[in-house]
Amino acid sequence: MKEQLAERLLARVMNWDAERVAKERPVLQSLAAYKYDEYQRFSPGQRFIESLALWLYDFKTTDHQETAYEFVRKRLIFFSAAEIQHLVSIAYPDHIRPLLLQRAAQELDLDPYHVGKVIASNSFRVLQRSTLFLGLSDGARTDIFRRSNEEYLSHEQILQNYEIKAERVMKLLEKLRKDLRKIASAAQDVSAATFNTIVLMDDFSASGTSYLRFKDEKSKDFKDENLEGKLFEFYRDINAPGSPFAQLINSTTKIYLILYIATNQAIDYLKDFLTKHWGDKGIRFEILAVHPLFPSIKIAPTDPLAPLLEYYYDKETLEDEHTSKGLHGVKYGYAACGLPVVLTHNTPNNSIYPIWARSPKLRALFPRISRHKRS
Prior knowledge:
2 domains; 375 residues; 14 helices; alpha/beta
C-alpha cells in the first residue's frame, strides 16, 4: 500500500482531524523510516503504517484505539538490525575481555587497573586464545561477532553451534596448542592444553526457560533425568563419559553465558537454576547481559493497558501445549514477562500478545513466526 494511502486509512480509522494528522504524521513517518518499516515479518508489500491502521481498526471503541495507539507511540521498544549488530560487536570488548583481563591480573598479581601491563603479558594472551565461543542459536550472529573481533580473536575459536562433532575436536585442540606455542614459546608445555573458558552466546532471553527447565513442573527435582533445554544439553555434553566436547575443557574451565538482550527475570531465573544444578558439581559460571531489560518496562495486571489485554484475549486461539509450559498463558506474553519488545527479525512471544498474535478478535501489529506449529 502506498504511504499516503496508508496514512489516509489511519486517519480515517482514528477519526483524526487535520490538526491531529499534522501533529502525528511526522512522528509516525520517523518511526517507520528509522525502524519499524524494516520489520522482516510483514507480508510482502506491507509496511508499518498500514499494519498499524489495520491493527487499530480491530479495536472496538475509540478509547481502546487511543490507548493502543499511545502504547505504540510511547512505550513500544523496537530493536533494529543496526542496534542488534552493535550489541553483538561490543559483547567481547566491553563484557568478556575485561573479565579475562581481571583473571590475568590475578594470575600475575598485578593491579587490574594496569591494563597495559596485563594486555602485554603472555598470561592474558594465553587466556584470550584459550577461550572458545559457541553460538546457542542463529541469534548468536557468530558471523558478525567474528568480523567485529578479528583484532583479538582467531576464527578457530568462534563456532556457530555448541554441538561439536568428534572429528572437529582434535582440529580445535591442535590449532589451540599451535597458537599457544607461538605465544609462550618454550616457556611452558602446551601439548595437553585445553580451553579454559567457554563463552555461550545468544541474542535474546526473557524468561530463561528455553535454556534450562524441568520437563514436568510438578517434579522440581534437580536430577538430570528431570531437566531439559539448551544449557542442559551443553552440560550433558561436557560431562558424558567419552564425550568429544569433554576433551576440549578441563576441571577449572569457566563458563560464561552472554545474552545480547535479556530481562532481569531471565538472568535471575538462570542464576538460581544453574546455581542449584551446576553449583554442587563444581562448574564455574557467570551470566552477562549486554543490554539488560529492566523490570520498569514490564506490563503487569495493574497497568492501564491491562483492560485491553483482558477484553481481546482469545484463550482458545492463543494457547496450546507449547504456551502451557509458561504456566500463565500468553495474555502478558509467555511466562507472563509482559514485554513491549519487538526485534527486527521477529517478535518474541514474551511480549504482550496484541503485538504479535493473530486471533479472531485482533490481528497482529508485528506478526510473529513461531518455532512451534499448532498440532
